Amino acid sequence: MAAAAQGSSLLCSCRSRPCTTRTTLSPFGPYPFLSPLTPIGASSKQLKLSNSRTGRVVSAVVSEENAIQSSFSGTDGFKLTYLEGNSWLWDVGGVKILVDPILVGNLDFGIPWLYDAAKKFLKNFQLSDIPEVDCLLITQSLDDHCHLKTLKPLSEKYPNLRVIATPNAKALLDPLFSNVTYLEPGQSSIIEAGNGSTVKVQATAGPVLGPPWQRPENGYLVIYPEGKSTLYYEPHCVYNTSSLEKERANIIITPVIKQLLPKFTLVSGQEDAVRLAKLLNAKFIVPMTNGDLDAKGLLASLVSAEGTIESFKELLSKELPDAQVLQPTPGVPLEIPLPPNLP
């Protein structure tokens, strides 16, 4: 376990390309309604955005900044925008959360000769294109999650930004941000947006990146509103079963394709992802392609993948036949409304 987790500290890798359909789910039935989406290319300048009030799809040729700003006007449910790698921008009931951002330079862990990765699709997307957010969420202390090239300029722009993070990142974050809450597994904190919306974030145990006595990194349960709907996120598909047995999450973001180095598991998936979905009784699974990057270097050449999204769907259908797999397209919000039986 320790050896595998240590390998996972170097990179997360997945080779599957994202699909090119935008999925908007109906709150009144179990099946998604699919509408065409222009694939995101190298510049990611042309997007088809959905008006959150009318559901109307409109075409726009705009900068990434304007595209993201216009599509983040608020939602009654979860609006999840994948920014490649481990990076996300979430709007949860109007609370905007930036997750594990890598928005400045490449991912190289300080050893570019060994590993150097750039984004494939959002090549021109920059830190300045991100709208003002309510919270920065950090799952792990290593560079593919706690990316100092991004966090230093982010802290200069927003020195009082609310941050929720693993305690393992304390030495990196304390010099940058003044409003940091470090959560151990089982602890929680409330994020409040300017519009008065609140979201509860509860830490869960993630991978151990080092010796077995080291503190685990974090996964998170994102709960809105008042426990009625929950998203679970952990970017390595590593979890503590006993700590999650009493939890439920209708939305799960997780890798589903295993990524392997010789004798090391970098990222789990497949059967482990199915067990996770069954454990939390998930309705929607959003598979991460967190290694689908333009990578070079010795480590990148040694990584191999096991399984596919299609084989995961087949495994999942046997255990949770009513669950839906929703593949995100980088830069395009994936909207998941609240369950229709909420008061």
UniProtKB/TrEMBL annotation:
Gene3D superfamilies: Ribonuclease Z/Hydroxyacylglutathione hydrolase-like. It comes from the Eukaryota. Pfam families: Lactamase_B_3. This is Metallo-beta-lactamase domain-containing protein. It comes from Malus domestica (Apple).
